[in-house]
UniProtKB/TrEMBL annotation:
Ranges annotated as biased composition (Pro residues): 33-44
Range of residues in the leader sequence: 1-19
PANTHER family: BACTERIAL SURFACE ANTIGEN (D15) DOMAIN-CONTAINING PROTEIN (PTHR12815:SF42), SORTING AND ASSEMBLY MACHINERY SAMM50 PROTEIN FAMILY MEMBER (PTHR12815)
Bacterial surface antigen (D15) domain segment(s): 403-716
InterPro entries per the UniProt record, alphabetical: Bac_surfAg_D15 (IPR000184), D15-like (IPR039910)
Species, as recorded: Sphingomonas ginkgonis
Protein name (record): Bacterial surface antigen (D15) domain-containing protein
Top-rank taxon, per record: Bacteria
Length: 716
């Protein structure tokens, strides 16, 4: 068998090879002849390739040079390890010396520095006025329209907003930069499509050179989009313990089988579950990492979400730690939830905001703490742990301003917000202005036994010099109020107070025909009740407000004279469009039981100015004395209407104000004066910054053509 196999292999050789082997000249080689092969000769006429002669070993040895011909040391025997180490030691140089160099050039001394030829290197700079070369390009994306038509978002818009090609504004330094941007954009489009459920999407790119930058036309960077099939939810599985109520997770996850697998939609649904569970009694609930298994054949995804509920809980007591501004009892006063109430994270967030609003903390945190105490309904009682880091309690503040009719005014204050804990503040204030100077000291207890209930007791001295009257007043007062705040707006608010004041005031005395100075001792109480059904404290857009103030008082001046001052305010807000609100307000005031001259000028009604009737100066409406100074009145009426248009953080307002002050005890709504104007608004987190410009209609001598008003918050 072996012989047959060899014969067969030789038979497959080309004929020229066999012929060359058979006709080789024996004299062309010095090698001894080899033993003839036992294989049969190739067939006659076979063509064999030319094969160069193979050298025999003797010829190889004869033609190869000896190993040590170039380096005789290679033929020497190797030295011993000991001799080698001794030779290295003897060659070592002393410290600081330089080993001898084998290069003669390196052994030569350096030339002196004076002979050194120093030439400044000149860097290549673009010629004067020469612009660097740039590649202009256009961008085109194909194949995205089909996917874009199936989504609620604008895929093309998403791409344009993030595109590196579009950010380059059609200019690149070279084609390499253009290619890099094109690659980056292709990955961007794939990410956008993946986020909307096209997980098989592929984007290829090319640079279309049908036009070139050489003839002034840009090349085109092209993205070719192949979205593929959109994946949808095939199954939805939530691994969680039973909840109360039973479908709490399913109803708030709000994912449906068959809907596209949209990343933002799924993340939003999971976030909603993470928010709702703590609001419904599960303070320690956590949403785990989702798992979505995609099937490329059916284009369906199996969605699995693990949720760890933890115990269902009810509010218990309070515990506080850290650098304390006040104790746990006052923390409980600020809370709006009761012990035993089902846990609700919204109530915890409200407590945290109330703590921050005290202004007494650098940082403050509120978190539930497990107690292990089980209630009869199998819920667990949790303690609210408040970690306090008390901040500086003292504040220095200053403000300055100018108002038409009020002049310049500078006010400074020093406040210790927690001088008498908890939240017992001392506020001292000084005022200096062209028409008003004074000082005051007020004790204020915020959250006095109840959230947002404030007690105040104060003493103030004030010197006023207005067109209407001049006064030097000392006042002692107290007030207890329950007010709305930006954190917690209340439907009903109230306030009660009492005051006693002594004042020396001067106004025009018609009997004497000149301004006359008189002394008054006034005491009284006050009561205020308000209702608020609007959607914002500083910038309402819908709803209504109403407030009534009643002040029974008595004055000692040439005898005792009791009287009652009352004022009613109301406003309404209606959104006629998404960005347009129509607003209106009215104010009516009366004084019963006294004549105008017997009433101290500072207790009369006045109108005009930014918080009253715009278009007129401060207190300038109503009866005037012979010197054209306002006298004030026993009653007043005011009304205003606004159209408010908001765009982004800015707004424009057009308004009409009207009002009048009357000598009568009850207004008769005659002789109303009107002002019209326009205003600008800049909306901040604290409320809109207001700038209004108004002019009076039927302007009379002495009245300003324009009046400007600046304030925080809407006019009403």
């Amino acid at each position: 068998m072996a012989g047959v196999a060899v014969a067969s292999l030789v038979a497959l050789l080309p004929a020229t090879a066999a012929a060359q082997t058979a006709t080789a000249d024996p004299s062309s080689t010095r090698c001894p002849p080899e033993t003839p092969s036992a294989a049969p000769p190739p067939p006659a006429g076979a063509r064999l390739p030319d094969v160069p002669p193979i050298l025999c070993q003797d010829e190889v040895n004869r033609e190869t040079p000896p190993l040590g011909a170039d380096d005789p040391s290679l033929q020497q025997p190797l030295e011993s390890v000991g001799d080698f180490e001794n030779r290295l030691k003897s060659a070592e140089t002393t410290p600081g010396s330089v080993a001898p160099s084998a290069d003669p050039e390196l052994a030569q001394p350096l030339p002196p520095l004076s002979q050194f030829d120093v030439r400044e290197v000149e860097l290549a700079q673009p010629a004067q006025g020469e612009k660097p070369a740039e590649l202009r390009y256009a961008t085109r994306i194909e194949g995205l329209d089909a996917a874009d038509a199936q989504t609620e978002i604008d895929l093309a818009g998403e791409y344009k907003g993030l595109s590196a090609l579009r950010e380059g504004k059609g200019k690149a330094a070279n084609e390499a930069m253009l290619s890099a941007r094109l690659t980056e954009d292709s990955k961007l489009v794939e990410r956008i499509l993946h986020a909307e459920g096209w997980y098989d999407a592929k984007v290829t790119t090319r640079i279309d050179r049908t036009t070139t930058a050489a003839d002034g036309q840009p090349v085109t960077a092209v993205l070719l989009v192949a979205p593929g099939e959109r994946y949808k939810l095939g199954t939805i599985i939530v691994h969680a313990d039973p909840t109360v109520p039973p479908r709490l997770i399913d109803d708030n996850l709000a994912l449906k089988i068959g809907e596209p697998i949209v990343a933002q939609r799924i993340q939003g649904a999971e976030a909603n579950v993470a928010i709702v569970l703590p609001q419904k009694g599960y303070p320690f609930a956590t949403v785990g990492q989702r798992d979505v298994l995609l099937d490329p054949e059916t284009h369906l995804g199996d969605y699995v979400l693990p949720v760890t509920l933890g115990p269902r809980a009810r509010f218990g007591g309070f515990r506080t730690t850290g650098d304390l501004a006040f104790d746990a009892h006052h923390v409980e006063v600020l809370s709006r939830f009761k012990r035993g109430q089902l846990y609700d994270s919204r109530q915890v967030d409200d407590l945290r905001q109330a703590l921050v609003a005290t202004g007494l903390f650098t940082t403050v945190a509120v978190a539930p703490e497990r107690t292990g105490q089980t209630n009869p309904d199998r819920t667990e009682t949790v303690t609210m742990l408040v970690t306090q880091d008390a901040g500086p309690p003292r504040t220095l503040a200053a403000s300055a301003g100018y108002g038409t009719g009020e002049g310049f005014r500078v006010e400074g204050s020093w406040t210790h917000r927690n001088l008498f804990p908890p939240e017992g503040a001392l506020v001292t204030t000084a005022v200096a202005g062209t028409q008003e100077q004074g000082a005051s000291a007020i004790f204020r207890r915020s959250n006095a036994g109840k959230r947002d209930r404030t007690f105040q007791f104060g003493l103030e001295a004030l010197r006023s010099r207005y067109d209407a009257f001049s006064a030097l007043t000392g006042r002692l007062f107290t007030r207890l109020s329950y007010d709305s705040t930006p954190i917690w707006r209340k439907t009903f608010t109230w306030a009660v107070g009492a005051e006693i004041l002594g004042t020396v005031e001067s106004d025009y005395n018609f009997a004497l025909g000149e301004r006359d100075k008189r002394k008054f001792l006034i005491g009284g109480v006050s009561g205020q009740l308000g209702i608020d059904r609007t959607d914002s404290l500083l910038d309402p857009t819908k709803g209504f407000r109403a407030q009534i103030l009643v002040q029974p008082e008595g004055a000692l001046h040439d005898g005792f004279r009791p009287y009652v001052r009352s004022q009613l305010d109301g406003s309404v807000y209606y959104p006629v469009a998404d960005k347009i609100v129509v607003a209106g307000r009215v104010r009516v005031g009366t004084t019963l039981g006294i004549d105008r001259f017997d009433l101290a000028p500072s207790r009369r009604f006045y109108a005009g100015g930014g918080g009253s009737v715009r278009g007129f100066g401060f207190q300038q409406l109503g009866p005037k004395d012979p010197d054209n100074r306002p006298l004030g009145g026993l009653s007043l009426t005011e009304a205003a209407a606004e159209v408010r248009y908001r765009f982004g953080n800015f707004g424009v307002v057009g308004f009409v104000d009207m009002g009048q002050v009357y000598e009568k005890r009850v207004p008769d709504f005659s002789g109303l004066r009107t002002g019209v104007g326009i205003g600008g608004r800049y909306y901040t987190s604290l409320g809109p910054l207001r700038v209004d410009v108004a002019t009076p209609l039927g302007r009379r001598p002495g009245e300003s053509r324009f009046n400007v008003y600046v304030s925080i918050g809407q006019a009403f």
